[in-house]
Amino acid sequence: MKINGNYTLNVTPAVFWEMVMDPNVLEKVTPGIKELKEEGPDKYEAISQVRVGPVKGNFNGNLVIKDKVPHESCTLEIDQKSKMGNVIAEIVMKMVPLEDDKTDIQYTGEAKMSGTLASMGQRIMSGVVSTLSKQFFKSMEEEIEKRDKN
Amino acid sequence: MGNFIGKSVKRREDARFLKGAGKYTDDIKLPKMAHAAFVRSPYAHAKILSVKTEEAEKADGVVAVFTAKDGCGEFGVPCGWQVDFKNGETMREPKHPLLAKDKIKHLGEAVAIVIAETLEQARDAVELVEVDYEELPSVTDPKKAMEEGAPLVHDEWENNAAFDWCIGNDRAEVEAALEKAHHVTEMEYRNQRLAPNAMEPRSYIADYDVNGDKWTLYTSTQNPHLIRLLLCAFALGIPEHKVRVVSRDVGGGFGSKIYHYTEEALLTWASKEIGRPIKWTSDRSEAFLTDAHGRDHVVKSKMGFDKDGKIVAHLTDEYCGMGAYLSTFAPAVPTYLHGTLFQGVYTTPLIHLNVTAPFTHTVPVDAYRGAGRPEATYLLERIISKGAQEMGMDPAEIRFKNFIPPFDGVEEEGYQTQVALQYDSGNYEKALKRGLEMLGYEDFRKEQEKARKKGKLLGVGISTYIEGCGIAPSAVVGALGARAGLYEVGQVRVQPTGKVSVFTGAHSHGQGHETVFAQFVADKLGIPMDDVEIEHGDTEQVAFGMGTYGSRSLAVGGSAIIKSIDKILEKGAKIAAHKLEAAEEDLEYLDGKWTVKGTDKSISFGDVSLTAYVPHDYPEGLEPGLDFSSFYDPSNFTYPFGTHIAVVEVDADTGAVELQRFIAVDDVGNVMNPMIVDGQIQGGVAQGVGQALLEEVVYDEGGQMITGSYMDYAMPRADDLPMIETDRTTTPCPHNPLGVKGAGEAGAIGSTPAVVNAVVDALAHLGVTDIQMPLKPQTVWRAMQN
Hints:
Chain A is of the alpha+beta class. Helix content of chain A is about 35%, strand content about 50%. Chain A contains 3 helices and 7 strands, in the order βααββββββα. The model of chain B has no long low-confidence stretch (mean pLDDT about 95). By secondary structure, chain B is an alpha+beta fold. In chain B, helix 8 runs parallel beside helix 17. In chain B, the strands form 7 sheets. In chain B, strands 3-5-1-12-9-10-11 form a 7-stranded mixed β-sheet, sandwiched between helices. At the A-B interface, helix 3 of A face helix 7 of B.
């Protein structure tokens, strides 16, 4: 399944970068995340619970951030296992600076699913991914607002 | 006689079904019964690195967890048909293990069985079994499976071929005739993979009884004796006389419940291990993943015509997917149940079919309603219509030109085809004429023309099918690779009071045998239907049997019963002659009594029955009792045929297809119960329409099934179908005592190409000559745009 989209945030690429690289922020903004344990540099163990239409499940697995070009781009490698199937995804995230200290986050990648997730969820998955992505950026916005207030 | 045969007697079994009183396997609850759930692979192809069961074993209510390491099923489940390679190499037959040990070969393959006090506990504990896999590349498409470098399903062989096979005339001769043909029509398409979707999912209860060291397996199968044989002699190696297989009410099979499945054998094994009965019932998602699928042919075909539209030659190459293992009948489906029907109803002088049957990383493929014959019919009926379209001929006219002339198989000999079979009797023109008359063909063409001018897309599709039912005789199918006989057993036990118990080896899973069999038994014996009980589906009641598939029940099973009735009447006549003090040859049997011809001296069936069991005044030397069992091995297949006509309207804006009329004129030989035959035809048509318009199992590139629920696998619904207009012609089968041919599959065989032909006809003026099934609106719309 192809994943792509974009979202404009009210921060500069540098600020966004700093936030994304902070596991505490990631843990707060990523939908469904229950726990994010730092396992090594840019490597996390993630435990999450996601409800996807007719199927819901507990996931755990790895999240790796690689190909880092600070303030410009990075690649997320996600490998999550669950009883309803596994997800492997690789997403390239680009941060394009806009006027007024804004940043357009552009992401593109591919996800592979197996098991019940694939047989039951594939059809609705792209919708789910887009919902989850929106949630991620909305939460990010909230974090930015909180941060601005402080 | 003749009170019941040919009458639409209401189905006796429906009283219990309508009241919810049917007894399906899942309705059975045994004392101390445990429940099973399976750990299944989320990958199509993977190495199993480790299986950890400790957590699951400790979970609430768990009785046992077994994996391949526990020694279950050293032999695996067997395949029942052997088709060797053309070069003589033996068919490649991989072991089909009850649980995967080192490697996963298809999505949903079981790795472990969890047995617990309740189903919920078993399912919860399944989540606690940890399996570590290493996913490997997979191949699910039969043609791609044969490409250089395709991932191997079984490492022990250098490629994925299970076997290859051909039938018909010499290939070079067929090719030469195609070279010289006036016109050659070509087709390349996929006969898509279908999921069987019986309303009742598969369900098994295995019950080991330490008292006597015996097993009982309650199973939703179409052939209990065959399951017992395969289970005992192959899968588990346990003594056949210690195993009872019970299969009473079964909610649909369509072929998918013929086969011996791994779960049946595994439960039987595990029941002895834990010393308790165990139940497993598939849920719908498991059914999509693990019931044997149907079809899956990739086809490339050429048909040559002369300038008058007469077929001169037909050449086809196919890749027919077997799935990861060879299911019970799988090798027979694209070969002896498929290639042997390539003559169709036409006089084609030269035919050649070449089949390559590869393994793929998918659930096994096997017979599904029609089994090989819908695939043959689809090809023939599409390509002849396409040929007519390309040559500017009428699709009815081209068929009339090519039909085999009528023959009754009695006065005129049976028709010898180019592909081994000899047809029994047929009158193909008559069925088409009747179909065209019911439609009002000429008027329809005028209406279609007018509609087109208004932008309305109407189309008509014709299919003139033939099929082979009641596969037989045993010696022939044995020579073709069957590892079983294909006879049937029928026992008629007259009780002392004249009531009759009939035990049949045929199996009813919706067919209505309890009604139809009782109709002809009552008529032949001249007694009320209420005095006849039909028993099936229990190996301890029924002596033996081969079950029900291939529309064989009445033609083969019914004939076995008739043989026993003949023996009953013959012995009864001896008793009657003794009682009436007359010579046997002076007696006639009519309306349930033996009468001395020309007198009013008679004795009833009931009195003779009683005498047989209370033999005080009895013929000397004659054994008491009135109970006969017979094996009937037919001399040939039967060949039902007919004409199906579909009328469709295609929405010019969206490509949506509306089936407006469906006409089915079927010749199934003599008819015992017209209502039941109509019902069979209607149900079959619905399934055939399902394939044409809606149904398809899709695996993605990673081997994941993306049509694993009714959200993505579209089944036909009532509002997809018009009222199906049925009629019949009757050409009796000349070689069985009832003159019947079989009606179980005809609907599914004839209908699919009729619908596709109709859609192509509706779009013919746009230059459309072919569309790939299923004809989803987007597929049709795209065809219209090109």
